[in-house]
Amino acid sequence: MQFNGGPTETVALQSSSPAIDVVPMAHCTDLASPPHPLTTDQRGLPRPDQGESVCDIGAYELRDTIAFSHFSGSLRIDPDAGVFNLSGGFTLGSGGIFNPASNSVTFSVGSYSITAPVGSFVRNSTGYVYQATVNGIFANVSIKFTSTPGKYGLVATARGVIPATASPVPVSLYSGNSSGSTQMTATFD
Predict the structure, then answer these.
(1) Domain 66-188, what fold?
(2) In sequence order, which residues have a C-beta less than 8 Å from that of residue 124 and are 6 or more positions away?
(3) Residue 157's pLDDT is what?
(4) What is the residue extent of each domain of the chain?
(5) 3-state secondary structure 127-158
(6) CA distance 83 to 11
């Protein structure tokens, strides 16, 4: 078990796992009576995957996406103020499609995870921007165009959360058919 995004540790499914895509939607529910449909995994990522009609077994829904060819950055966390600032960037993998204005976006830093529904990111002249306050946590995520096609800058800030207390910190970003996960070195103020 390890932190793969979200509030608790999970077991990440490997691409050859027999637990992938085997639970029909009618049975992808919680244990309540009557049962409620599960729309996210334990990390807050969509369940089932985009375009699929079956779920994975367990707390982790494997995303069938094209991995970023590069994903890196740095992270500053101020635990006293409950603030983090991330500055980084990513490059799409071959065949990757990335349009946050027309796809949902899931972004996580350590134990903090948000899924912005379709239409939450607004396109402007420099890229895409998302701002919202959810459960008392303010988040601002900017995905910036660069002069190189398929390469983006990533700047994110959140207030009201301490996503991690040790470095490195797992960071992930998913949208369209593209995804990336990395471990970022954190500086604590």
Answers:
(1) Immunoglobulin-like (2.60.40)
(2) none
(3) 97
(4) 1-64, 66-188
(5) EEEEEEEECCEEEEEEEEECCCCCEEEEEEEE
(6) 28
Backbone torsions φ then ψ of 27, nearest 5 degrees? -105, 5
Segment 59-82 mean pLDDT:
92
CA distances, 137 to each of 62, 113, 121, 158, 164 (Å)? 27, 11, 17, 7, 15
- Residue 120's nearest CA partner among 137, 139, 136 is 139
- Helical (H) or strand (E) element with 86: strand 83-91
**């946050």: which residue's tokens?**
100
Residues 138, 67, 178: CA angle, nearest 5 degrees: 55
Q: Which of 182, 61, 187 is nearest to 115 (CA)?
A: 61
Q: Yes or no: say if 33 and 56 are a contact pair by the CB < 8 Å rule.
A: no
142-164 pLDDT, tens digit per residue, is: 999 999 999 999 999 999 999 99
Distance CA 115, CA 173 (A): 10
